[in-house]
């Protein structure tokens, strides 16, 4: 990349790379789409992210394959590797890139997970991160001894105690390398003993939290270092950003202690028209006629295979508490969501497939490299985000064009680093080191 001198700016943009999961984000029909489980795919995307000086590389988690109408969901047939294992391998072939694993607090235990994350932090020289997710689903729980015991209302309560307990374990070694016994007595965990690893290079791995609900926002404000979210327009982004940042003070935290990074897609073209055409084609590939019907069935809760994807939405109301899709459902009231989609369909004259495309697309930056760089910069400089987690539609080469064509323009604007200046993920993100609590 050719890099021009930077100008001084108020805020620096944070960027991360999301390895596409087993869902309709990935365009499987594209001949450039490769394996979801071969190490070479993870390595390629991680190398691209590090070449682009990204903060971290982000992996999702799937503890059980989805089922739809009693069959394994087609898009899960590729398999779902365990993320920390993959990241330990990537630690050996990268030097500065942060390595973020999504790990569930419902179906793991603090001692075991704290040990695995501390190991990754040691092996990587201080680049580990943990994306904290919660679950209350009995369907996923069937893979575990506890089953689905956890009430939905308790998932964040257990999650918060889980993170607290993990941090107590990491703090059970002093900064100068002395091990001390630990003991935690709480509602969900009652453990005592000695932790097996000294304090890792970051003290604590970086904690990421995903979720836009009110309880998710509060959890992030109290606990997380990074918030992975989604919001659409510049205005809604600013409102979300302001709401979450204002909550930090109640926990004795400063606004810069939490980075807000929405997940986004980027589609580039040599002209604006070309970029829009490419984006429309990608959306048509992501939302096939079959996927459109499947998505509708997740909301309506009934078999809609007799409906024409190019025809109108069903007039029937959704079935509450349907089990037609197991493990992945759309949040919120299905009747209200169906009404919202019907209104959208009527307003714009959209078919089922067109409605799903319109309603399901994640936030995207679409345009020439110059226009995309300017828009990303505007979001960050006007406090709609601290940066973005890029979700490409191709595995593993979906970030190549962004790194080659957009990153140099962000650097020219003075809004993005031209080199890594630190060695740990905390240093990349500008986060304070955790205070040791002896």
TrEMBL record:
Q: Could you tell me which residue ranges the Luciferase-like domain spans?
A: 32-382
What keywords tag this UniProt record? Flavoprotein, FMN, Monooxygenase, Oxidoreductase
Entry EC number(s):
1.14.-.-
Cross-referenced Pfam families:
Bac_luciferase (PF00296)
Q: Which family does it belong to?
A: Belongs to the NtaA/SnaA/DszA monooxygenase family.
Please state what class of enzyme this protein is. oxidoreductase
Tell me the GO molecular function terms. monooxygenase activity
Protein name per its UniProtKB record: NtaA/DmoA family FMN-dependent monooxygenase
